[in-house]
Write a structure and sequence with these properties.
This is Glycosyltransferase RgtA/B/C/D-like domain-containing protein. This protein is mainly alpha-helical and about 650 residues long. It is built from 25 helices and nine strands.
Length: about 650
C-alpha cells in the first residue's frame, strides 16, 4: 500500500486543510477534560481526531484496485426473510412479557444490524432499495407501536398536557378552548388529533396513534428522498436507516407531542429546500418549501427556531457561492451538478417576520411568548453564563449525594452507552463534512447541510458548556440527526471509496455491528421501560398508578390551584408528580423532599412501589434533585394516616393526632 507525496498534492486543497485543522482542534480540546468532567468533552475530541485521521489516510493513500468484499447472493436473498421473522418476534415479545424488555432491545439491535449490513455489503446486482426501505419502515413501525400497545396511558410527560388541551378544543368546538395557552397560535397538532378523534369516532389516545403515530415512522422516507437528490440509492437508503434507528427520533415516535409533528414538517421543509437547490425547480417546488416552513411555525415553537437556523444556514451558503470568498466556483460534475445558487432572501425574511408576528400573539406566562423567551435568555446571560459552566444533562459523573459517594462502574458506563450511537454518527458526519468542502464538490445544498449541522451542534453541545440551556438542547437532537444522517452516509461512502479495502471493511463492520444496538439501548429509545432502570426514570405508568391518579382526584375533588394552601400541596416523586398536575387531578403537586438517610416531612404525600425498585427523582435537603430508591416509611411515616391505597400506590396525610 503506497501513499502520495505532499508535493503531488500541493497546493493543499480546502478539504485537506480542514482535515488537518480538525486534527489540531481535536488535540487542543483534549486538555479540557482536566478542567471539567463532561461526557462530550471526553469523547468529541477523540471522535473528531479519528474522523480527520481516517479522511487524511484515504486522501494520501494510493488508489487500490481491490474491491470491498460483498455478501454472497444467497445470503443477501435470505436476509429479508430473517429480518421479517425478527420483526414478527418483536411483535410477539411485548405481548408475552407485557413490556419491551432487555430481550426485546437485544433482538431489535440484531435486526437493525442485519438491515444496515444488507445496505452496506450487498453487491450491486442484489441491492434492492425498495425492499430495504420496506424493512426500515416496518422496523420503525414495530419498534414504536409495540411500546404504544404495551403501555397503559401515554409515554412521556408533556403528552398529558396536550391531551388536556385537545380535550378542551373538542369540548369548545374551536381553538378558543386553549386561548390562554402558548399553543393557541400553534395549534396544528391539537387540531389534527382532535379532527382524527371526530373523524374516526375514537378516543384521543387512539386518534393520536392513528394520526401522528402513523406519520412518524413514514416520515423517515423523507430522508431517503432528500439524500437521493445528492447521492446514489445505496447511500440514500443508508441515511434513511441511520435516521430511523436514531434514539431521539424513536423517542418522538413514542412521546407523541407537537415536537413530533414539528419534526415531520421540518423533514418536509429540508427535502423541499434541498430539492429547489438541486433541480430546475418550478413554482410548485418553491410553494412546497413555503408551505412546509409555515406548517412548522404553526405547529411548534422550538421546531420553528430550529427551522430558522437551517434557513439561515442556507442563506449563508448562498452568500458563500455568490460572493465566492473561498473561490468555490468549480464543480466536479461527476459528484454534484453545478447550479446557480438559489436566492433565499425572501423566504428567510418571510419566515422570520411570520415567526415574530405569531410569537408576539402567543400568550405565555402573563406576557407574549417572544417577550418571555427574550427575558429568560437575558436573565441567563446575566446570572449563569460562563465558560465550562457545565449545564448538560448528560454527564460522565454521577451527582454527588455525599462526600463519600462514589459512582459505581455501571453509573459511569451508562452515559457513554446512551451517547455511543450519536458519537458514531458524529464521526461519520465529520468525514462527510470534509468531503463536501472540496472545491470541486462544494455546492449550495451540501454546504447548507454542513452549516446547519455545525450551527445545531453549537446549540446542542456548545452553548450548554457556557451554562446556556434556554434553547432546550435535548429537543434539537432529532432535528440534528437529519443533516447528520445525510452527511454521515456521504462520509461512509467517502471512506468506502478512499481507504484500503481491509480498513474499509473494518470501519464498516464496527459501524454496522455497534450503531444499531447503541441507538436501541440509548435511554431515549426505551423511555417506556428503561434498560438501565436504576439509572433512568420510567416515563410511563402502570394501570394501578393511573387508577390512583384518577381516584385521588375524585377523593380530593380535584381542587383548583388557587384553592390549595401551601401546606396542602401534594408531594411525590418525579416524574409521577407531573401526571397529577398536568391532568388536573391535583394541580398543586410537586417533587417530594427526602433528606439523605432521612424521612420526608410533608403533610400530604403519595408513595408508589416504583420508588423502592426503580429510578425516581426526589429533592434532597438543599433542593437538588437526585435519583434515589426509598422505602415507603421514608415518604409516608407510620404516624401519618392512609387516605387512599390500592396496594401499589398509597396517599398519606398528617393525622389529627400528629398535628
Amino acid at each position: 500500500m503506497g501513499y502520495k507525496s505532499l508535493s503531488e498534492l500541493r497546493p493543499f486543497r480546502l478539504d485537506t486543510v480542514a482535515a488537518i485543522a480538525g486534527l489540531l482542534i481535536a488535540l487542543a480540546l483534549l486538555p479540557l477534560r482536566f478542567f471539567a468532567s463532561q461526557l462530550y468533552l471526553n469523547t468529541v475530541p477523540l471522535v473528531l481526531g479519528t474522523a480527520c485521521l481516517l479522511y487524511l489516510i484515504g486522501l494520501y493513500q494510493q488508489e487500490d484496485t481491490a474491491t470491498i468484499p460483498t455478501l454472497p447472493s444467497p445470503v443477501t436473498m435470505a436476509l429479508p426473510t430473517v429480518v421479517l421473522a425478527g420483526l414478527s418476534a418483536l411483535v410477539v415479545l411485548p405481548a408475552i412479557q407485557g413490556a419491551r424488555t432487555t430481550v426485546f432491545f437485544a433482538l431489535a439491535s440484531v435486526v437493525g444490524t442485519l438491515i444496515v449490513g444488507q445496505i452496506v455489503f450487498a453487491n450491486d446486482r442484489d441491492f434492492k432499495p425498495g425492499l430495504l426501505l420496506l424493512q426500515i419502515v416496518l422496523f420503525a413501525f414495530v419498534f414504536r407501536f409495540t411500546a404504544l400497545y404495551a403501555t397503559t396511558g401515554y409515554i412521556g410527560i408533556d403528552i398529558w398536557t396536550h391531551a388536556e388541551l385537545t380535550h378542551a378544543i373538542l369540548e369548545e368546538g374551536s381553538v378558543g378552548g386553549i386561548s390562554d395557552d402558548k399553543h393557541y397560535a400553534s395549534p396544528f397538532y391539537h387540531l389534527l388529533v382532535a379532527a382524527s378523534s371526530v373523524l374516526y369516532d375514537v378516543p384521543f389516545r387512539v386518534a393520536l396513534y392513528l394520526s401522528v403515530g402513523i406519520v412518524m415512522p413514514l416520515s423517515v422516507l423523507l430522508i431517503y428522498a432528500t439524500t437521493n437528490l445528492l447521492v446514489s440509492q445505496r447511500w440514500a437508503t443508508l441515511a434513511t436507516a441511520l435516521f430511523a434507528f436514531a434514539s431521539h427520533v424513536s423517542m418522538w415516535g413514542l412521546h407523541l407531542i407537537p415536537t413530533s409533528l414539528g419534526l415531520v414538517f421540518f423533514l418536509g421543509m429540508v427535502y423541499a429546500l434541498i430539492r429547489v437547490m438541486r433541480i430546475e425547480y418550478t413554482v410548485r417546488d418553491f410553494s412546497l418549501l413555503l408551505l412546509m416552513s409555515v406548517a412548522v411555525i404553526l405547529t411548534h415553537q422550538v421546531s420553528t427556531f430550529i427551522m430558522l437556523v437551517v434557513l439561515l444556514a442556507a442563506f449563508l451558503a448562498q452568500l458563500v457561492f455568490e460572493v465566492g470568498p473561498l473561490g468555490l466556483t468549480r464543480f466536479d460534475t461527476s459528484v454534484f451538478r453545478a447550479k446557480k445558487p438559489v436566492n433565499l432572501v425572501g423566504l428567510v425574511a418571510f419566515n422570520i417576520g411570520l415567526t415574530i408576528f405569531v410569537w408576539s400573539l402567543t400568550p405565555y406566562r402573563q406576557q407574549s411568548f417572544l417577550a418571555t423567551v427574550l427575558s429568560y435568555f437575558s436573565q441567563t446571560l446575566e446570572e449563569s453564563a460562563g465558560f465550562l459552566n457545565i449545564a448538560s444533562g448528560t454527564s460522565a459523573e454521577a451527582p454527588e449525594s455525599g462526600a463519600e459517594a462514589t459512582p459505581t462502574l455501571l453509573e459511569q458506563v451508562v452515559p457513554y452507552v446512551d451517547a455511543l450511537g450519536f458519537l458514531f454518527l458524529l464521526g461519520a458526519t465529520f468525514v462527510g463534512c470534509l468531503y463536501v468542502v472540496h472545491r470541486r464538490r462544494a455546492e449550495q445544498s451540501v454546504f447548507t447541510l454542513l452549516l446547519a449541522a455545525a450551527f445545531m451542534l453549537v446549540f446542542v453541545l456548545g452553548l450548554p458548556m457556557f451554562g446556556i440551556r434556554n434553547f432546550i438542547p435535548t429537543r434539537w437532537f432529532a432535528f440534528l440527526f437529519a443533516p447528520m444522517a445525510i452527511l454521515g452516509a456521504i462520509g461512509l461512502r467517502t471512506l468506502s471509496q478512499g481507504l484500503n479495502p481491509k480498513i474499509v471493511v473494518s470501519v464498516l463492520l464496527v459501524f454496522v455491528l455497534i450503531y444499531p444496538g447503541a441507538m436501541m439501548f440509548a435511554v431515549e429509545s426505551n423511555v417506556d421501560n428503561p434498560v438501565f432502570d436504576e439509572q433512568h426514570e420510567r416515563l410511563a405508568y402502570d394501570e394501578s398508578e393511573l387508577a390512583a391518579v384518577e381516584s385521588i382526584g375524585h377523593l380530593t375533588g380535584s381542587p383548583s390551584g388557587q384553592e390549595i394552601r401551601p401546606d396542602q400541596q401534594l408531594h411525590t416523586d418525579h416524574p409521577y408528580q407531573t401526571v397529577f398536575s398536568r391532568t388536573g387531578a391535583y394541580p398543586s403537586t410537586t417533587t417530594a423532599t427526602v433528606p439523605d438517610d432521612g424521612i420526608a416531612e410533608h403533610d400530604y404525600a403519595v408513595y408508589r412501589s416504583t420508588q423502592s425498585t426503580g429510578a425516581t427523582y426526589f429533592n434532597d435537603a438543599d433542593g437538588n434533585g437526585r435519583i434515589e430508591q426509598i422505602s415507603q416509611t421514608r415518604l409516608c411515616s407510620p404516624a401519618q394516616a392512609t387516605v387512599y391505597t390500592n396496594g401499589d400506590v398509597t396517599m398519606c396525610a398528617a393525622s389529627p393526632a400528629s398535628s
